[in-house]
Amino acid sequence: MRKGLSIGLALVLVLIGLAPAIASAQANPTAGQAPQREAGQAQQRVENRKGIAKMKAERLRGYIARHIEVLKSIIARMETRIAKIEARGLSAEGQTKLESAKKNLVDAKTLLGNTADTAKKIVADVESVLGGDDVRKGLSDAKKKIGEPRKLLADAIAKIKAARQDIAGALGTVTAPASMATTSTTTSSAN
Fold first, then answer.
1. Per the record, which residues fall in region Disordered (predicted)?
2. Which of 62, 81, 85 is nearest to 73 (CA)?
């Protein structure tokens, strides 16, 4: 009897020890699917990176487009100012400075056009990279290219500033219209 009791007791202890293992095996039937889940998570991370890259590329394009529009409006105002100055009449030195200002504005317009084209190309490059497998390398290449439109914008701004200085120099050499010259001599002789 003692022998049967000790065998029964040993059997109960073994079953109690195995009970948590049996319960976890029944509760987690997908224990063998961990590699599949990790692969799915890796794919999800890649998709998230692609989405973020697209969003950043669009933000860059929008940023550059906004700056181009602002600079174009500045150029338009400066061209209007040049036309008004020319209508007043200029000395030879002033005319030279005004021509320099016009040239700088034309150069700035060209740079702005190049900037817009470069920004569109970068967005297209990023989208093509996102279709490939090596997203990280493609994005690092795109980051290097992003500096190019920013440099073009800076060059355009420098040209606009140079044109602004030329206009200011030309304003210093504006000749007075004939009607103003006669009125100023009349008032000075009356005193």
1. 29-50
2. 81
83 within 8 A of 159, measured Cβ to Cβ? no
Which amino acid, 123?
A: V
Query: CA–CA separation, 130 vs 45, rounded Å?
Result: 13
More confident residue, 30 or 71: 71
Q: Which domains does the chain have, with CATH numbers?
A: 53-176 (1.20.120)
Question: Which tokens belong to 134?
Answer: 């090596």
CA distance 65 to 130: 23
Amino acid occupying residue 44: Q
**Residue 181: count of CB within 10 angstroms of its CB:** 11
**Closest by Cα among 94, 96, 80 to 175:** 94
Q: Which of 4-8, 16-20, 31-35, 76-80 has the highest mean pLDDT?
A: 76-80
pLDDT tens-digit readout, 70-107: 888 888 888 888 888 778 776 777 778 878 888 888 88
Which structure tokens are listed for 113? 């056009």
pLDDT value at residue 20 = 64
Q: Which residues of 49-61 are buried (b: 16+ CB within 10 A; e: fewer)?
A: ebeebeebbeebb
